[in-house]
Amino acid sequence: MTNIKDIARLAGVSVSTVSRVLNNYKHVARDKRESVLRVIEEMNYTPNKNAIDLIRGETRTIGVILPYNNNPAFDQILNGILNKALEHDFSITVLPSIYSKEKEVEYLKKLKSKLYDGIIITSRANDWETIIPYTGYGSIVSCEYTQHKEIGCSYMDRYSSYLDAFQLLKNKGHYAVAFTTARIESNSTKQMIGAYKEVFGEFQPKYHISGCLCLEDGYKAAEHFLHLPERPTAVYANGDEVAGGIYLYAKSQQLKIPADLAIIGQENQPIGIGMGITTVDHQLTKIGEQAFSLVIKKSREKVKIPYHIVERDSV
Fold first, then answer.
1. Which of 37, 159, 217, 287 could form a disulfide with 191 if both were Cys (CB 3.0 to 4.6 A apart)?
2. pTM for the whole thing?
3. Which of 61, 37, 3 is nearest to 296 (CA)?
């Protein structure tokens, strides 16, 4: 089997020259480059990627820890990462975690093995004290804010966005407001409950349902909310798909939107656009794009992406 030493001997150049040609370095004499490329073609030589990565000291591959691969919000972040990866000729490896602490650590250990140049964490189960030691082996970037100086982050101000969404409903005359979240133990759920208390003064557990990820979850949540003795007049859903499910159930009960029930969703997704649902757009695609830029620059910068509320007919 032909190897890099054979190529060097047949081309009449040094092994380091062959290495520079394989890595597409610019500073190689034209005649030597042409000689190496000719031998490679004649010998039908395929370079060993792992060997090239070892020589180059990088893999041009970024790992992306993603809790779910069928969640529209995480799909938007991943889409932004993929856009920039294609632009910069990097490969992306998706690392599904299902919020398993053990899986996350297993992926972080791959930085130590130099399988990735860096890792982007879209959402996490582990605390930062567990994650930070792995920054010694490669760049780690978060898609949520962290004050730790070892971690760069691309993030949005979720708490302020929740305040604005609840305040919008209050300004429209709604005080019996329900909301849905994805994970009861997540930081975003804690922030949403905090924002609810700040705007309405009291948190009523009957107006909160967690574990909502899709349209079907929203449908079931609406069925619960709308059969309460004191049913809510508005619902803030943690995603436009969940909001779509709430919308469909409300319509099945002959309720008018927004006269009988106001609805706000999140992330400006196609289903929300089609149904005319007001949404809080956290610009997740831009968060993914910025996270990729930070990780390839090995930057520890904190970059805040602005959100905005898109008002439609559901409020």
1. 159
2. 0.82
3. 61
